[in-house]
Amino acid sequence: MVAVRAEASVPVAERIRPRALLRTAIQIAVVIGLVVLLRVAVIEPVRVSSESMATTYDKGDVLLVDKLATHTGSPGRGDVVAFVSPQDGALTLKRVVGVAGDRVAVLDGFLVVNGARVREPFVDHASQDGIYFGTVTVPPHAVFVMGDNRANSIDSRQYGPVPLVAISGRVRLRLWPLG
């Protein structure tokens, strides 16, 4: 019983070992370093800032961008990619509709790649009626991107094909809202 009282009377600072403090500080620093490394090199949460990808993604949605995807192969048709817009320098999300060598056009609101109409259930074709563009051949080491909300999207139709080196990652999933 006396030992308990003696220990209770010792100041807290003397009871905490300096080694334990150092170990805890190192663990916290390692965790923070790993989180920063993951965000810079592997994954990044991105908030959708416009309506150009509606109805697939809405303004305010939070998406997870896989940055390693750019090292495992070129994006394919249908992938939603993140890149710095050549128009305003902002991080932009668009769908790849054409890859190197493809001939891309929009005829009466419908995407046509290499002479064939592309099925796009995520595009509201009723709002696309009367839109024409192209035909453009996608150069090597580039992709042609368009927003799913074609009537309200600034994309490769305005600024041309996007170089593969400008793509920072592929959208993998929606974090928010859930479901």
Chain-wise SSE layout:
Layout: H1 2-9, H2 12-15, H3 18-42, E1 43-47, E2 62-66, E3 80-84, E4 91-99, E5 103-107, E6 110-113, E7 116-117, E8 133-137, E9 142-146, H4 156-159, E10 162-163, E11 167-176
Antiparallel strand pairs: 1-2, 2-11, 3-4, 3-11, 4-9, 5-6, 5-8, 6-7, 9-10
How does this model look, in words?
With 179 residues, the protein is α+β, with helices and mostly antiparallel strands. The chain has 2 domains: 2-41; 43-175, Umud Fragment, subunit A (Ribbon), CATH 2.10.109. The chain is built from 4 helices and 11 strands, in the order αααβββββββββαββ. It has helices at 2-9, 12-15, 18-42, 156-159, and strands at 43-47, 62-66, 80-84, 91-99, 103-107, 110-113, 116-117, 133-137, 142-146, 162-163, 167-176. The strands form 2 sheets. A 7-stranded antiparallel β-sheet has the order 1-2-11-3-4-9-10. Strand 3 and strand 4 (91-99) form a beta hairpin. The radius of gyration is 25 Å and the shape is elongated. It starts with a helix and ends with a strand. The mean pLDDT is 87.
Q: Under CATH, the topology of the largest domain is which? A: Umud Fragment, subunit A
The tally of helices reads 4
The average pLDDT value, as a whole number, equals: 87
Sum up the overall morphology in one term. elongated
Derived from helix and strand composition plus strand pairing, the structural class reads: alpha+beta
> Could you list the spans in which at least 5 consecutive residues all have pLDDT below 50?
none
Give the class-level CATH name of the largest domain. Mainly Beta
Q: What integer value in Å does the Rg equal?
A: 25 Å
Q: Describe the largest sheet.
A: 7 strands, antiparallel
Our measurement of the CA-to-CA distance between the termini, rounded to an integer number of angstroms, reads 58 Å
Assigned CATH architecture of the largest domain: Ribbon
Strand order of the largest sheet: 1-2-11-3-4-9-10
Let me know the number of strands.
11
The number of distinct structural domains comes to: 2
Order of helices and strands: HHHEEEEEEEEEHEE
